[in-house]
Amino acid sequence: MVTFVATVTAATQGYDSSMMNGLQILPGFEDYFNLSLPLQSLNVAIVSLGSVFAAPFGAYVPDKYGRKWGMAATAIVSLTGAIIQSAAQNSAMFFIERFLVGVSVTLSCIVSPEYVAEVAHPKYRGSLTSLYGAFRYIGGIIASLVTFGSQYIPSTWCWRFPSLLQFLPAILSIIPLPFIPESPRWLVYVDHQEEARRILIKYHGGGDENSPLVAAEFEEIRQTLEYERSVQTVGWKALYGTKGNRWRIGVCLTLTVFSQLSGMNTVSYYLGKVLDTAGVTNTNTQLGINISLSVWSLFCAVVGSIWVDAVKRRIEFLGSLTIMGLTMIIMAILTKLYLDTDNAVASGAIILWSGGFPRSMLYHWFLEPLCYPYAMGWSSWGFYLITAAICFLEAIVVFFYWPETRGLTLEEIDVVFDGEKHYENELTINEVEQVMVDVDVGKA
């Protein structure tokens, strides 16, 4: 339940991207808004503008009032946007909703994975946090099915109905919020230490007040936060005030940039144009392919989540970037050779290789999605090659710059970045867990 409430907010982004794919294929949507190329670009790019706008203050609510209130704020913004979009009378109203979607996406990206990482049992932290990205594609599947069915509605509700249903992830997130625990790390941060200890005992110690795991976790959290208070300033300066923080912000920035330059937006928001270049122009067929790609994306995301603790983080990133780069090259070759032909096999191959993309999981910037339709019009195969080169450059940065964090707690990851321990536990959390396993085996 805890993981579901936090990660279901990611479905908003997945629903939105798949919904826009579907809406931009629907003749009823295109006719109502007289959809030109600039408007089509802005429909997508305005989401990224909202994301950028929310980034500077996105952590304020979860840091000051708690992670649960942060998730509530995300749901409220998303609900507001869904109502405005479904009632839109003109492009301006539609753009306002798109902007609010971008705000909610950033708020969700900030608070939800953070909450899961802080509440999840150390053994399952990696897999459960990764499920945040998988839920994105559940929203995508729902939206693709809804838009497939709404094509048969002979009124503006062909696009209003899918727009209104965008409130579903928010509702599913906000209703159970009162029944899940607050983050123990945040509780320690605001000096509610006993409440934090009780939560750790209940969810990590199985109700055992003398659990060695809980004792070790609590001390790691308490001592690390005490150290952070003693050396770090509050505000923007904290982002670059220490060598460790500069490394952290560098990894975060490159991750954000890479997730957008790897080709994801091509399929996420402009599937119709990709299919047009492949020679697939039938509305019903394009909407059906949208469903298939959403299902395939979910499968990839779930497999990645399951394997995230079995395979090193950097290996997964390097493998994904390499596959995406090779996929782009294959799509470029097929598009160059068979563009504007009636070769059904080539069209099918382009669609098949498009499935190599939906693996990135973060939010969009403004300029890139704005320029995508123009780039595709300039040279779709050339654009694919440029994106392939970017994927390989990203892999080089990941190899030399990103640290490995598999199997580490949040406090142990601090040690990786800062180069020193901020707590006095002799054993790591993983070592404590292994001792507990050995003791249980000995008793058996």
From TrEMBL:
InterPro entries: MFS_dom, MFS_sugar_transport-like, MFS_Sugar_Transporters, MFS_trans_sf
Residues covered by the Major facilitator superfamily (MFS) profile domain: 2-444
UniProt keyword Transport present: yes
Membrane spanning residue stretches: 38-57, 134-153, 159-180, 247-271, 291-310, 317-339, 345-366, 378-402
Subcellular localization: Membrane
Signal peptide (residue range): none
Keyword check for Cell membrane: no
SUPFAM superfamilies, alphabetized: MFS general substrate transporter
GO cellular component entries: membrane
PROSITE patterns (UniProt xref): MFS
UniProt membrane topology term: Multi-pass membrane protein
Pfam families in the record: Sugar_tr (PF00083)
Domain of life: Eukaryota
Annotated keywords: Membrane, Sugar transport, Transmembrane, Transmembrane helix, Transport
Gene Ontology terms, MF aspect: carbohydrate:proton symporter activity
Family per record: Belongs to the major facilitator superfamily. Sugar transporter (TC 2.A.1.1) family.
Record's protein name: Sugar transporter
